[in-house]
Every structure is written in structure tokens, then in C-alpha cells.
Amino acid sequence: VKLSSLGEFGLIDRLRRRTTPSPLAVRGIGDDCAQHRLPPDEELLTTMDLLLEGVHFRRDWTDLEHLGRKSVAVNVSDIAAMGGTPRFLYLGLGLPATATVEEVDAFAAGALAEAERYGVALAGGDTCRSASGWVIAVTVEGSAPAGQAVGRDGARPGDIVCVSGSLGDSALVLQRLQRNESMSSPLAQRHHAPPARVALGRALAQAGLATAMIDLSDGFAADLGHILEQSGCGAEVELDQLPLSAAFRAAGGTVELAVTGGEDYELLFTLPAARQGELSGLAQRLNLPLTPVGRIVAAPGLQLLAADGRRALPQGGFNHFG
Amino acid sequence: VKLSSLGEFGLIDRLRRRTTPSPLAVRGIGDDCAQHRLPPDEELLTTMDLLLEGVHFRRDWTDLEHLGRKSVAVNVSDIAAMGGTPRFLYLGLGLPATATVEEVDAFAAGALAEAERYGVALAGGDTCRSASGWVIAVTVEGSAPAGQAVGRDGARPGDIVCVSGSLGDSALVLQRLQRNESMSSPLAQRHHAPPARVALGRALAQAGLATAMIDLSDGFAADLGHILEQSGCGAEVELDQLPLSAAFRAAGGTVELAVTGGEDYELLFTLPAARQGELSGLAQRLNLPLTPVGRIVAAPGLQLLAADGRRALPQGGFNHFG
């Protein structure tokens, strides 16, 4: 079915009918703006991402349902990285002339399922045709009680550096896709349907446990670099402490890939050494590994320490235009 | 200067350095999310637009500074149409490999000048390369005191239909561009740098004067149609009352174009007939024509009335995929 048979407003209606409005909505989809209340004494958190066909994704490497899921998850992950609760989703879709209603439905099914998973309501957006490939713009708004949100700038010498889940899985899948090799499904899911660690982010913020936090999108070394730069300090990381999944090791994943590979969407955070004992209880409660991998030091720069002494690794991460 | 010499993070830094943070910002550009307080007892208004090269704009018809201005103004206009105060801007930019730092600077100069004009602070966004032309995603957040925002659903039979400014100027300029004809500068500005009627929208909302409101993006007939549909009523409009500018008439603009042409970004609103007397004082105070052009009726549908009796005009507006 061609999109032209539905029209722009038909498409918007179609998306609206599948949407459960937020309990915080005053006006939802269909007016000039979405209109929401925020919970009392909460601050607004906002993040936006552009995802472009041929740049961020290839249609022959991912199906549209997973693309919908990932488009939402990577933005929800930014809310998680501040310790917030994700609330409202805005979806901008530029669709090529060849796009069908079935394709848009598949994308929407993924996006809306992922939104529901995180308690986020589709509240607005924009649809238009695209002269080239799919163009996806996502904005997610969330909120956090005033004073609770965690930035990148609060790491202090002596703090412990900690990471959730495992590293490098997503980059390994991407590497194999680039070589036209397929991967086992559980590992592939780490690339196509990454997690957003909302419960962890909230717990760390609520407990005042994290001094700085970021989600791993550019890669462990690059994202830790963002924290170090904004906190004005350095870090020493023990490479043999980095959490690597059994599947990653079995498929030949290397420590180098775990350090530089992007799109894990795990949370990287720092916490006072005196409170390190609280990690294991939190990990157990969330059923999610939380692994201390190093410490914050006063001297600037990131030192990656191998078991047999110091060595430097390339610290590159993904950099558009780079 | 090639963008690659600056890199993604260099580009973000460059934009950040030209930005004055909002007084409501807790954290601005450079963290996982922007973090803001809203004024006490205000509700959040959010709008998003996608603007794609070759679909919404042509580089040979508009320069990048005007493109930056318009990208911001059309979103601010959506906040105005709810009666809100625009506050925070998020800019997603997909840039072709050929884009230069000078081009991005020109776009940013326009976008940031327009943001400043409306008191909006750049607070975040995303930059990446694009495999084809320029991709622009804009999100603007605003706010309005609880209960003040004006939707499209409040028009009632007996209400007066009113429009600000003049109609059709933007569409006339577009028509001439499509014929490779140039226009005089003041009229051309109506297309390339349309207004966002923020002061008018705020005044109408604050006074509780507008029962329904929308900004004119799809065209007078189509946008009035949105109000009628969501308010569950109809309207009669006197064609000879439509405000046409002297420049529009002199350049041969027709009533048909004024009724169907898009992108005027004036405000179309309804108000109780008993309060029509308040319009002239408001128009004087804002130095902006406010013209009653018809009335809301119970019978569904839009009747366009010529001086010599009834006639129907095509009610089309711009419809992507249509």
C-alpha cells in the first residue's frame, strides 16, 4: 500500500490511534504543540537524535521494527544517563517515495513497543517525504526530581569508575555485518535492540550514588573521556576488569574493541570509594552486573592499565565528520 | 574550510560558544540531556519539525542564513499558536560531505539570531553527516501558565473567525520562485523570514480571548479546516474581508492563492462575538492588523462567501504524500 493513499494526515491519525496518551498530557497529538504537566518539583530533561539511512543504519543490515526500537532506545538511554524518568516521545519521519504503509507500520510497531517498555508516550512529531532515504529525528523528554539529575561534570579524584552490563557486544556485531558475516541472535540483539538502563539510572540518582554518569554511545574510552574533560580530572582503568560477555569472548571479541567500540548503551558512572559497597546489592536488585573498572585521579588523561603494566591504546570513538 | 578539520565535537563547541544559556537552564549543551526548570505552575509545550533539502527548501532559492531563521521561526510559531512563551531550542543537523564551516556558520547565525529575537536559548541537538542534502530537525519547547494554552478544539457557533497580518504573500513568492522570477525584497521576506506571532499568541491566551487558535502553515482554508474538524463545527468566511497586502495585490496575487497558499505563519483564531470589540485595541497595541473574516456555525464544513453570493473554492492545503 502506497503512503499516498493514506496521506500525511491519515498517517498521523494512524499513529495516534495506536498511542496511549501520557497521564501527564493536557493535549496530545493533533494540535500545534503537545501540552504536558510535569510532576511537581521535577526538572525537564530533553534529548534529540538524528538517524539517517546510509549514515547511521543500512536497511539491509536492520529490519524496520528493530530500527524503530533502537531509535527510541538510544534517546531513552540519554534520559537514563541523567538519572531521569523518560516520559514523552516526538518522532520526525522523512520517508522516501517508495516507502509503503507496511514499512511505516513495522517501524511504528517497534518504536511504540519500545516506548511502552519504558513508559514513554508518543506525543507528537512530523512526517514528510524524503528525496533520498529514511530520515528519523527523535526527541525524548523526561524529568527528575530537582537536584537529582546526574551530569558528566561531578567526578572527583578517588571516585570509582563503574560500568553496567558488558562492553563491545554491539561493536562486534557491527564489525561482522561489515564483513557480511551473521551473528548468533542474542549477541545480534545487543546491536539491533540495545537496552536503555532506566532503572539503574534512576536508582543511582535517587540514592545520590553516582557523582557523574554517561551512556556508552561513542565507546568506553571516548565516553569516559567526556566525563574526564567535563569533570577536569583523569582516570586509571584496569583492562582486565572490563566486563566482557561470554558470547563476546567466544566470538573472538578483543579488549581493544570493548574499549573503543560504540553503541553499547550501558551506563558508565563514577561513585565515591566509600560507597562502593552499595554496588553489589544494587546489581542484585536490578539483575544487572555493575563492574568497578578503575578510579578517578587528579592528573588529566585516561590511563589504560594492562595486567602486565602500563600501555596506551587508541582512544578513538565515533566522530561524525572526523 | 572543511567540516572534517573541525570534527563533530569541534562543531558542537563552536555552536555552544555562541549561545547564551537560558536563565531556566540547570545544565545546557554538552551533557546527555539538557536540564531545565519550568517557571512555577507552567505547563510544557513542545513542537518538532523536519526540514529536508529538495523537499522543504532548495539551496538555490534560499540562502543558509534565511534557512536558519525560518527553521527556528516556524517552530516558534507553533508555540505562539498555543499562546505559549518559546524557551528552549534543539537543533539536529545532517550535513553533506561538501558542507563547509562557513555554510554551517551562516545557518547558525540565522538560527541563533532568530532564537534571540524570540528569547529562545539553544539548549542541545545532534550533528552528523548526511549522505544526501541538508537535513534539519528542530524541536522547540515553550511553556504557558496552567490553563492558558489555546488548542484547536474550542471554537463554538457564533464565534468570530479572525486572522493576523496578511494572507498569501509567502505563497506568491514561492509561485514566482517556481517560475524563476524574482520578487521585491519586502514581499520576499514574507517567504524567507516569516514572522512568529508570539506577542499576539501570548496576549490572546492571557486575556482568555481566543477560543481556538492555529498558525497558518498549510494554508488558510486547510488550517481553518483543522480547527473546524477538532471543534466539531463549520464556518462561513467572507472572501472580500480577507486581509491582502498592497504588495500582494500589486504583484497580481489572487484571493484563491490567499485562501489556499501555505506558510504565512500568521495566527488564525476564533473569539466570542461579545468580545470582538477588544480586537482593535489589541491590534493597535501590537501594531499588527487583526481582521475578522467570518463566523463559526454549527453546520460542518467551510463556506467561502464571495460578495456576489456563495461559491466553493478548492480547500486544498499542503499534504505530504498527497
How many β-strand stretches of chain A?
Answer: 13
Question: What's the assembly state of these chains?
Answer: homodimer
Work out the largest interface and the residue count of each chain.
Answer: A-B, 72 and 72 residues
Which residue ranges of chain A are poorly predicted, with pLDDT under 50 across at least 5 consecutive positions?
A: none
Tell me the β content of chain A.
25-35%
- The ordered H/E elements of chain A are HEEEHEHEEEHHHEHEHHEHEEE
Arithmetic mean pLDDT of chain A:
92
First and last CA, distance of chain A: 40 Å
* Count, helices of chain A: 10
Judged by helices, strands and strand pairing, the structural class of chain A is: alpha+beta
Cα gyration radius of chain A (Å): 20 Å
C-alpha geometry of chain A:
globular
* Major beta sheet summary of chain A: 7 strands, mixed
Task: Kindly report the spatial arrangement of strands forming the biggest sheet of chain A.
Answer: 8-10-7-11-9-12-13
